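Extended Data, panel c. Modelled sequence:
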Amino acid sequence: MNWDDSTGTAPGEDAERLVGAEADGDDQAVEAALRPKELGEFVGQSKVREQLDLVLKAARQRGGTADHVLLSGAPGLGKTTLSMIIASEMSAPIRITSGPAIQHAGDLAAILSSLQEGEVLFLDEIHRMSRPAEEMLYMAMEDFRVDVIVGKGPGATAIPLELPPFTLVGATTRAGLLPPPLRDRFGFTGHMEFYEPEELERVIHRSARLLDVDTDEEGAAEIAGRSRGTPRIANRLLRRVRDYAQVKADGAINREIAGRALDVYEVDARGLDRLDRSVLGALLKLFGGGPVGLSTLSVAVGEERETVEEVAEPFLVREGLLARTPRGRVATPAAWAHLGLTPPQQGPHGTPGGPGQQGLFGA
């Protein structure tokens, strides 16, 4: 079965992957309504908020544009929201585009040449921009100028085009892929961390008020505990629990209702969904906890290699349920405990099954 990375579902399935951090069309529409408009309303990321607040206040006092801002972190943590808040705090319009949409220098030149003075340009997934466009961006960020090439071959001429001062907000999920010359041109860099459960509870309470949903403290805590440290997932789970409460109960959300609703959607108490448990189950039951190669594990769960590696593994590793080793994937004691299984007797090298099993299932 092939898994759809964008939704986390197999072809033919209608259900979205509730714990997927990427935003689909429905998420984007809801996020627009729930998104805070001011920095003071933004929940979490206290260090980034404090630092960014200083940058923006100083720019307003100078009467100029804010420095270019780079925001890095996993999907769903609020990078787009912060970019819109920057524009709002600076009383400036915002232009939104993405790295994959800029494949030629001409694409970027067209956007830059139409910017207004002080405008905020939000460039999502900036690390996926083409190299020619990247090199054009260096000059635009530093000198507010681009050279437009007219003609081809020996007769080509570079025409300098002056740009009004603007603020670039770049967002990336993989900051390590940004070339140093581009990264160094950002005046402020903020790294977005995963949220603590208490912070997610505040996000859920705020969203519940905006959605006109009655949610008590324990109900919000139950949803927060299954949200994988990500506000986007917390809001998505809140909407699904709201649906369950509306149909199966009196519309109010408490711990029992939230737990029953998320059990229906196969999101367990730790935030693992069907795909996560399938990967862990195969690793534990078929391969004794590993080590096992990624390709072998992918075949065992009936998923593409990329799906296991990019969709399931990051959260399992972060939760301390799975480890990547040179010999393959290995389950941790916490994984055995989470699925209620007893690990096999440890081999002489400290792994289940000893050296013979390592050889069978190595990478």
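Residues 274-360 form a domain with the Arc Repressor Mutant, subunit A fold (CATH 1.10.10.10). This feature is highlighted in the accompanying rendering.
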